[in-house]
TrEMBL record:
The lineage of its organism: Bacteria, Bacillati, Actinomycetota, Actinomycetes, Kitasatosporales. Belongs to the cytochrome P450 family. CDD domains: CYP107-like (cd11029). This is Cytochrome P450. PANTHER family: CYTOCHROME P450 YJIB-RELATED, P450, PUTATIVE (EUROFUNG)-RELATED. Residues 63-84 are annotated as: Disordered.
Length: 420
């Protein structure tokens, strides 16, 4: 089961070839080294967990802390784990970096403001944004679906939801663009963008607090300020970190859901045709199961965010020392043949599809209803309005973004019959 002298050496991880198709390497790890210690490109050593059962267990294990202070290398590994720029901008106290009881309190407060109802009411605006973005390129007969569609949609959506005024949203587009372009590369520009975003959010939160009760305050930031639990409120600093994590967690993930999703459909014409036919007949059920399947098949979050053992633990038969980082490889777990029949096949009507694309346990994705709404609207509208959509590049030449946690394309050139 584990690596021994008869097992061939582990395939290379985190290279460009690996980024284009990590699944064969993950299949190897699942079989030969399901809990595998490796050096990451940053130099930090971490355990990769690749089997579904181990992954699910690790995601729910309270002995694995989200607080980077538990990292045994936290003194000299400073800045190498977590979100680039978050330390310098004082944004550390957000949901993905904390454990109960703080996590429980903050999650309860944000859940009072970020409700399924608020998301459902937002559906017409998401549809409007989707159509506007398509209107802007439909006359050309070609587009880069990442830059012209998948990238702007979630940033405008989350800005609208938070209550960032429309005239400031292009600043967010620029800052987010910097984060997504350089997420796995130089950190200076990213840290500056994070700082600017943080400064802007702090000011916005302050202003919204002053203006509370004066009307026009039904946005999510005002909701966060108003939310209270047993008389407790978020501090301005907590509200800023919360707004930031909503932006950060809800942005590149959704870009990749749309990008990876469209790409998978274009590469699986039979499934794409099935979906297109169902939509034409007014049947949306395949759209709902289809987006879940796309999340399982080639999801936006390749590795769940950092976890650190607070005490020695055994996972998948492997001893993990206190202070060691553990990275749960969602992309590997979701292709585990022990859990999913024919895991490498895209089946949009797959039943029994409890994938880990949104995580599991107390950190389960808070934005899943919004992600589903955006993913379904984006895919359905593209297929309806651009019925002959096709790839305008050799798949071999498409580049995937570097970076550890997320998985997504840099560009997705497409062509279709132009409409005036
Ligand atoms: C957490 C995936 C969209 C907000 C997570 C986690 C995953 C995930 C895997 C858990 C990470 C971990 O345990 O280490 C996704 C995917 C998305 C998506 C695949 C899109 C397709 C969104 C959106 C928002 C959002 C749109 C909000 C606007 C969050 C937040 C957390 C989270 C706040 C932290 C929850 C906590 O720690 O309690 N997401 N996400 N996500 N997500 Fe998402």
């Amino acid at each position: 089961m584990h690596e021994n002298k008869d097992t061939p050496p582990a395939p290379p991880l985190f290279t460009w070839e690996f980024a284009a198709d990590p699944y064969p390497a993950y299949a190897w790890l699942r079989e030969h080294a399901p809990v595998h210690r490796t050096a990451l490109p940053s130099g930090v050593e971490a355990w990769l967990v690749t089997r579904y059962a181990d992954a699910r267990q690790a995601l729910a294990d309270q002995r694995l802390s989200k607080n980077p202070a538990h990292h045994s290398e936290s003194a000299h590994g400073k800045g190498k784990v977590g979100i680039p720029g978050e330390r310098s901008a004082n944004l550390m106290t957000h949901l993905l970096n904390i454990d109960p009881p703080d996590h429980t309190r903050l999650r309860r407060l944000v859940s009072k403001a970020f409700t399924p109802r608020r998301v459902a009411e937002f559906a017409p605006r998401v549809q409007e944004l989707t159509d506007q973005l398509i209107d802007a390129f439909i006359e050309k007969g070609e587009a880069d679906l990442i830059h012209e569609f998948a990238f702007p949609l979630p940033i405008y959506a989350i800005c609208d939801l938070l209550g960032v005024p429309r005239e400031d949203q292009d600043d967010f587009r620029d800052w987010a663009g910097m984060m997504i372009r350089h997420g796995g590369g130089p950190r200076g520009g990213v840290a500056r963008s994070v700082k600017k975003m943080r400064g802007y959010l702090a000011e916005l939160i302050h202003r919204k607090r002053e203006e509370l009760g004066e009307g026009g305050d039904d946005d999510l930031i005002s909701g966060l300020i108003r939310a209270s639990d047993h008389g407790e409120h978020l501090t301005e600093n907590e509200a800023a970190a919360m707004a930031f994590i909503l932006l950060f967690a809800g942005f590149e993930t959704t870009v990749n859901l749309i990008g990876n999703g469209v790409y998978a459909l274009l590469r699986n014409p039979g499934e794409r045709e099935r979906l297109q036919r169902a939509l034409a007949e007014g049947d949306e059920s395949l759209l709902a199961t289809g987006v879940e399947e796309l999340l399982r098949y080639d999801g936006p979050v390749e590795l769940a965010t950092w976890r650190f053992a607070t005490e020695p633990i055994t996972l998948g038969g492997q001893r993990i020392a206190a202070g060691d980082p553990v990275l749960v490889v969602l992309a590997a777990a979701d292709r585990d043949p022990e859990r999913f029949a024919e895991p490498d096949t895209l089946d949009l009507s797959r039943r029994d599809n409890q994938h880990l694309g949104y995580g599991h346990g107390i950190h389960y994705c808070l934005g899943a209803p919004l992600a589903r709404l955006e993913g379904q609207a984006a895919l359905a509208t593209l297929l309806r309005r651009l019925p002959d959509l096709r790839l305008a590049a050799d798949p071999e030449e498409l580049r995937w973004r570097g970076g550890l946690i997320m998985r997504g394309l840099r560009t997705l050139p497409v062509e279709f019959t132009a409409r005036i």
